């Protein structure tokens, strides 16, 4: 499972071994216990990765081979590829841009091995992109 935590200025991507259903159920229970509103709705999340990161070509090949509707890759320009994911947006229901997006590539159309590889690969690529961005900003 992948979890993207959105804040006003950025987002953070995590790879979790817990199932999407278990994680959402725990989040609902937590919201009930603390008396907080929780809105869960189908959504799409997108982010950019540098095209020249090692592993982007491998991910592109895997996505083409799997023919999944959960993940899509689109080359934006000569520097970036856009990763689009279908999943669920969890927030307090307000119009703020703060919330959590969760997705899993393990559905009836995908094998566990592809799902795990793709999720893990996306997480590693995102980490590498963050490391490259922090080096460049220094």
TrEMBL record:
Domain of life assignment: Bacteria
Protein name (record): Uncharacterized protein
């Amino acid at each position: 499972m992948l979890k993207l935590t959105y804040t006003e200025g950025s987002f953070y991507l995590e790879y979790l071994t817990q199932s999407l259903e278990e994680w959402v159920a725990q989040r609902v229970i937590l919201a009930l216990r603390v008396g907080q509103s929780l809105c869960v709705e189908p959504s799409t999340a997108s982010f950019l990765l540098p095209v020249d990161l090692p592993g982007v070509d491998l991910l592109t090949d895997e996505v083409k081979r799997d023919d999944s509707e959960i993940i899509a890759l689109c080359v934006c320009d000569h520097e970036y590829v856009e990763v689009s994911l279908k999943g669920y947006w969890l927030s307090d229901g307000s119009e703020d841009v703060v919330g959590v997006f969760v997705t899993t590539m393990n559905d009836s159309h995908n094998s566990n091995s592809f799902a795990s590889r793709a999720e893990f690969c996306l997480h590693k690529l995102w980490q590498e992109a963050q490391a490259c961005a922090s080096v460049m900003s220094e």
